[in-house]
Amino acid sequence: MSTRKTAIVTGSTSGIGLAIAEAFAREGCNVVLNSFSDTPADHAIAERLATAHKTEAVYLKADMSKGAECRTLVAEAAKRFGSVDILVNNAGIQHVAPVDAFPTDKWDAIIAINLTSAFHTIAAALPLMKQAGGGRIINIASAHGLVASAYKSAYVSAKHGIMGLTKTVALEVAQQNITCNAICPGYVLTPLVEAQIPDQMKAHNMDRDTVVREVMLDRQPTKEFVTVEQIAATAVFLASDAAAQINGTHISVDGGWTAQ
Predict the structure, then answer these.
(1) Mean pLDDT, the chain, as a whole number?
(2) Is the pLDDT of residue 145 over 70?
(3) Which residues are known catalytic residues?
(4) What angle, rounded to 10 degrees, do the helices at 153-172 and 104-111 form?
(5) Exposed/middle/buried for 50, CB within 10 Å: 0-12, 13-18, 19+?
């Protein structure tokens, strides 16, 4: 059985989740990557991390809209590595529409994946962490966990819910060497966001720099994207001994968005 700490990162084959998984691999943790696709490319990511950082990494499929699969993900990680020391709830989806035109299936999926999945993974991980004498839970929320934007009712509701779940879990386990905190990113330059830039340039008849500053980063005072590496470094910090007394709160990494 490995003596390394084990980190599960949901939704971790690209973007923020992959950066967090790689950061924990770099720290020497066993890493469990996750998505719902289960392709050879997914498994190749785990192999790359293991080789690059001389640790163990595995890809485990789980559909985060299904509670049973969320819990099985945690159980399989514990069976493979013997413990679950760090749980990062990152999986998420988005849909934009007015409330009175918001598709019910999209609402249900966003709440399930962005909020309810975290309940299931936490509920499954806590007994393991208690038995081991400690653990770290990190929920990737959003600036939209603190403030709202029009046409994002499901996403805003789910991320506000994540903030409440974070606080509640932290209070319940505060004396058991387990912390639960949230990271609230602003706009992060992920492959998904990068792919939206050309369409925004056409729609607004602007060059790339202008559409980024005046459209995409309109509410982000620094006018700079947050990087996935910055979010990953924040997650590593929250899992460190230095953050042992940070509990039930959030760290905003949003270029000043929620300071307004």
Answers:
(1) 96
(2) yes
(3) 155
(4) 20
(5) middle
Residue 102 to residue 94: CA distance in whole angstroms: 12
- Per-residue pLDDT at 1: 37
Helix-helix angle 117-132:153-172, to 10 degrees: 20
Q: What is the structure's pLDDT at 195?
A: 87
pLDDT in tens, 200-258: 999 999 999 999 999 999 999 999 999 999 999 999 999 999 999 999 999 999 999 99
Nearest Cα residue to 254 out of 214, 225, 211: 225
Q: Which helix (H) or strand (E) holds 72?
A: helix 67-81
Q: What is the pTM of this model?
A: 0.96
What per-residue string of b and e applies to 58-73 under the rule 16 or more CB within 10 Å gives b? bbbbbbbbbbebbbbb
CB 90 within 8 A of CB 10: yes
- The tens digit of pLDDT for each residue in 70-122 reads 999 999 999 999 999 999 999 999 999 999 999 999 999 999 999 999 999 99
Question: Distance from first CA to last CA of the chain, Å, rounded?
Answer: 49
- For the chain, the 3-state helix, strand and coil shares in percent, each to the nearest 5, are 50, 15, 30
135-174: buried (b, 16+ CB within 10 Å) or exposed (e) per residue? bbbbbbbbbbbbbeeeebbbbbbbbbbbbebbbebbeebe
What sign has the CA pseudo-torsion 95, 98, 99, 104?
Answer: negative
Give the closest residue to 186 by CA, choosing from 230, 143, 232.
143
